[in-house]
């Protein structure tokens, strides 16, 4: 039962940042769409919703950054990354002679 609970928690740790990134993207998209859609309406002066856009920007990059970092850490642990991203091994000490 512990294995099932651990796997469920691991899935939630990836789903929650994914949803955060999704909602952040939607907030950015909505603020841009509302700004451009107000140009046809003469009763309203178009203004950009900066706070909503910045909140969406932060949410998107926090979620995407968490998932990207987790994937990179996992791939580095399993040696799936390019040689330049692998952890450097310390040099052995020079022999005294």
From TrEMBL:
InterPro entries: Uncharacterised_YqzF. The chain crosses the membrane at residues 7-26, 53-73. It comes from the Bacteria. Keywords: Membrane, Transmembrane, Transmembrane helix. The keyword Membrane applies. It holds the Pfam family DUF2627. This is Uncharacterized protein DUF2627. It comes from Paenibacillus prosopidis.
């Amino acid at each position: 039962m512990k294995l099932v609970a651990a796997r469920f928690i691991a899935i939630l740790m990836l789903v929650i940042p994914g949803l955060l990134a999704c909602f952040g993207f939607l907030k950015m998209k909505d603020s841009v769409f509302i700004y451009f859609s107000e140009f046809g309406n003469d009763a309203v002066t178009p203004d950009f919703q900066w706070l909503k856009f910045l909140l969406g920007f932060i949410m998107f990059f926090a979620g995407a950054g968490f998932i990207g970092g987790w994937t990179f850490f996992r791939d580095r642990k399993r040696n799936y990354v390019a040689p330049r991203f692998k952890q450097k091994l310390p040099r052995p000490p020079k022999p005294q002679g």
